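Box 3.1. Reading complex inputs
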Amino acid sequence: MTQINLDELTHLQVINKKLVTGYHISEQDTLMWQELDQHIEQYSALFCSLGHELKHDSRGFYYFASDESTPNMGKISRAIALTVYILIEHFANTGKDPMRALFDEVNDLELMQTLVQMNKHLFDQLEIFSGSDLRKDVYLRMIRLGLAREVEGGFMLQAPVYRYIDALMEVNEETYLGEDE
Amino acid sequence: MIPAKKLLNTLTEHWGMLELLFKRFKMADFSLKDVQNAIKQKQPTWSNERIYKETNRLLNQDIIIPLAKSSQLEINRAIADFATFLLQEEHLGLAQEISVLVDDLARLGDRLANAGDIEDYDELRRFSRIMDDRVRKIIKLFTHNENAILNIVEHAKANNAVQSLQKRYKAVIEAFDEYIEPMLEMVDIRGDFHACFSKIETQISEQIAYIERSGKAYQDKRMLEQLRTRILEMHLVGRESLRKSADMLMPLREELRRNNMITRQAAKVLGLIRKNGVDNMLSSVQPHFVSDAQRFSLGQQRHMVAYMAGLVEFEHTEYELPDQQDVPAYVTPNIPDYNTVKTSFKKRINAKRKKPEPLLTFLGESYPELDADEMLFLYQKLVSDTDIEISQSDEKMRVKIAGQHFSLFPFNTKPDSEQKQTGNE
């Protein structure tokens, strides 16, 4: 069994606090990331005993895996998913390399307004009616979850967004039909 | 004819400027003014007169030549090729270039064999030299194309994100489809390339064997051996170079394919969402997050620390159930029947009415063979028995029962006179 030496896990408190709220620790969170990277075995063992499954994604982030969300979290997650997919489509439509633009472009309020305007009836379903709603309901929450970071003039998405891209690839007609039955 | 050394000197002297021109205009034309500006940029201290003289020198030595029927200039093609080689700014050649050379090699191989058969050693030597030249050319093309592919890859990677992916990777895809794939087919172990080489190899080997046997033209043997080695090496170099090029291009091609897939999928999913609604479509696939409310909260820091401290000590070991042999045999308690004890106790009280007597003394005297727990069992039974009149002492005492020390408020028999007394040990 892995020996857990609490003295070595100097950032345990802050890491735990972040992870239990659904935050994704990515390479941009340098301190925590390094700490996790160095003592990953100990942390995994410790969190495992606490009933959490610490996951390491090779695209550069750590998070607690979960099989279900609270209804509220579920709604947030759907809103984020929709935003990410619309972003991909938007970048592709404007002739950019969508995957590159997704992580390299600063998402400012103007972009948010455009997105909401162009996909009004989709965002209406999630009670997002304007660019600032999108900012408040999606982007600020993405920051809380470690999916984005705030930069000058807007937000930039981070590696954990790949979870949504993985989810995107999973969607097919059967997913929906399966739901229906 | 301009002496080579003179030309080389000019080239070294003006290399900086030529590199600048080469990089700025690639293969396009430029004006005399551009040349003078380039010189000025590299040699800011030079006077206008000197610059004019140097420009003329470049023109006179045919390093820069005027375009036909135009006042524009271009870099001499031979110099430009040399520069591409030096700067490794190579452009990808065609797979056909190599295949033509290989075909030629096969033809020359046949002629070499013929020359050998009719013992025309001059011809043999001549063909061997030409073949050697072709082989060098092919090797050069391989390395040249490898560099070119490296350039393409770097270019594609560093390119602006604003451009669409298709545009950025156009060169990559072209390189792959037009060079790597046909080349890989050719180099394949069952491909033309391989067949051609084994044929040439056997032809040369036969010639060498013949020379060895006949002893004629012995000095040509070494040349043929060298040619054979070189052809084998070329084959190897080609394979290596193609493998490397393919390795460089593959990930980019993969990325493009994946990006295309993601874009297509995003469009498809959004279409489905538009038809079926956000919640219906995404509920089953959305990623889940841990949230505060959902998990039991560990509360404050001290809980956390205590809990974790407990966890540190925790060692997961299998609990071992005792074996049959390990269990000590059950011994029935050696306690005498309570009623007998009671009767004998009552008898004793009646006998010694005068003095209060500690219960334990009685038990100790009557049943010296009992264990401490058995003794205490009887003691407790007697104490709680309502038939017997006893009183409890107010003073705490230490008593020794069957080798064990106990501290208790002992019960004593009640004497007739209601005097409180302490028991003795």
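In summary: Chain A has a mean pLDDT of 84.
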